[in-house]
Design a protein that fits this description.
Blueprint lengths: L11 E5 L3 E10 L2 E11 L9 H13 L6 E6 L5 E7 L8 H13 L6 E7 L10 E9 H13 L3 E7 H8 L10 E7 L4 E7 L2 E8 L4 H12 L6 H7 L14 H16 L2 H14 L5 E7 L3 H4 L2 H7 L3 E3 L2 H4 L6 H4 L5 H7 L7
Parallel strand pairs: 1-4, 4-8, 9-12, 12-13
Antiparallel strand pairs: 1-2, 2-3, 5-7, 6-7, 9-10, 10-11
Helix pairs in contact: 1-3, 4-13
Length: 354
């Protein structure tokens, strides 16, 4: 099986968002993964669940863009997940950690133990003496998973794995993360919400959706205030010097550009207190650890930039692009944007590695 992967591509990774579907497929060459195919496809019905006709259209687009096969790996819509921090006997005790975690997740969420798929992992031990271990779990109800799987199958695609975007981002950014006791964050700036993962010893120790966040409210405010049609918002932002690649183009109207930039910065600054509180929570779990930085990904990362987070939190912030995590070849010019990072992490799912 090891040799078979040397001549095969990964399944197609699909990061399904509210407005776009980001797709990536990798190939193994010279002992390195490289980006073999890439696409960003607008949703036919923004904000709505996938339907078979949209999947069929997506399959056609992917084929034209150079993707091969019909097997896919999907990201999970965070709103459908149960995420719990559990206290259980450590694995070193011989206790069946995964079985105990499943029963505890079922109890906490009022579900039958066999009604969901789950992934869990034990967190690094704290400096504080404890008889119990912390275990972080993420669970997806079967009804949510089956709904997506059925639609994909009806549209001509097949899912071989489903994973959270948080784990996908962690995998993609692994070589940018420290493995020591430093505390670091990964912030996914998405359309419907901002989602944060905090790591210590290179392991995700806490995940949360930041309240009252997302790009959607900012887009609505900008469209209303400046009388811009939603479909023209990206062009408008580019004209204000806030393009998708965060290029500092000279705006035609400097006064308006300054107002737009102020609104954008204020929107992202609203989540700083919640980010700070999230870091403080993990630092409390690991006393003596130092806060070392924040990685920014997702569709809003280029728009937000690093300054508002670096200054507001007093930590080093860095916008992650695909070219930093994998050789992108001919795709770098068009798709070297932080919104594609999660799809690349999905494609690196461990079962696909040679």
């Amino acid at each position: 099986m090891r040799g078979a992967w040397l001549t095969r591509r990964t399944p197609i990774a699909l990061d399904i968002g509210m407005r776009q579907i980001k797709a990536a497929q990798l190939a193994w060459h010279n002992r390195l993964w490289r980006l073999e195919a890439c696409a960003c496809v607008p949703r036919q019905r923004a904000g709505k669940p996938l339907e078979a006709d949209e999947v069929a259209r997506l399959a056609q687009v992917l084929q034209r863009q150079g993707f091969t096969g019909r097997k896919t790996i999907l990201s999970v819509v965070t709103e459908h997940l149960f995420s719990d921090l559990l206290e259980l006997p450590p694995a070193s005790s011989g206790a069946p950690t995964e079985d105990l975690a499943r029963m505890e997740v079922a109890r906490l969420n009022g579900r039958a133990a066999g009604s969901f798929e789950m992934v869990c992992w034990e967190l690094p031990p704290s400096a504080r003496p404890r008889e119990q271990a912390y275990v972080l779990s993420s669970a997806l109800p079967h009804e949510q998973a089956n709904a997506v799987l059925d639609v994909l199958e009806a549209g001509g695609l097949q899912a071989v794995a489903i994973q959270t975007a948080g784990l996908a981002l962690e995998r993609a950014c692994r070589h940018l993360l420290r493995s020591d006791a430093a505390v670091q964050g990964i912030l996914d700036l998405g359309w419907s919400a901002f989602r944060m993962s905090v790591l210590c010893h290179g392991v995700i120790c806490y995940q949360r959706v930041l309240p009252e966040t997302g790009l959607a409210p900012l887009a609505a405010e900008l469209c209303t205030r400046f009388r811009v049609a939603p479909e023209h918002l990206e062009v408008f932002l580019s004209g204000m010097g806030l393009s998708g690649a965060n290029e500092a183009a000279a705006p035609a109207n400097p006064a308006m550009a300054a107002e737009v930039r102020s609104l954008v910065a204020a929107h992202f600054a609203r989540c700083l207190d919640d980010i700070r509180a999230t870091f403080d929570y993990v630092l409390g779990m690991y006393p003596g650890s130092a806060l070392r930085g924040l990685l920014l990904a997702g569709g809003g990362a280029a728009l937000a930039g690093e300054e508002v987070f670096a200054q507001g939190l007093g930590v080093q912030a860095h916008v992650v692009k695909p070219s930093e995590v994998i050789p992108c070849g001919r795709w770098e010019r068009q798709y070297d944007v932080p919104g594609m990072v999660a799809a690349i992490g999905l494609a690196q799912f461990q079962e696909n590695r040679p």
